[in-house]
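G., the chain you wanted modeled:
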Amino acid sequence: MAGEWAVWAAVLVAVALVAIGVAGFVAPERASRHYGIAVGRGDAVARSWASAAAWRDVALGAMVAAGALWASRDMAGALVLAAALVPAGDALVLARHRVRVGRAYAPHVGGTLAMAGVGVALLTV
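Predicted structure as tokens:
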């Protein structure tokens, strides 16, 4: 079936989001370093924010999976494109706070581009 690959790409995006979220919840200090915001073990407020962001990623992954597996291809594409706003927003937050570590932007920009590509593919294939 034409475009079936796009559905499975969306499922892979969903699995990646859930995995990132679970990793962030289990080890917020380590996960936060990969995302450009160092969270210290003794900083309960920062750890709470990192854990909240982790659960956000789990929820986004569940939403994308539900769209890919049970919604129309157009709806799944719209959901993935909407979800791509999250990593784009994360990159903008880093820029706003003048994070200078270039590798901190990689997961956010890469995630945005991957999700936007999958979303467009779902809408057009």
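The chain has a mean pLDDT of 89.

Shout if anything looks off.
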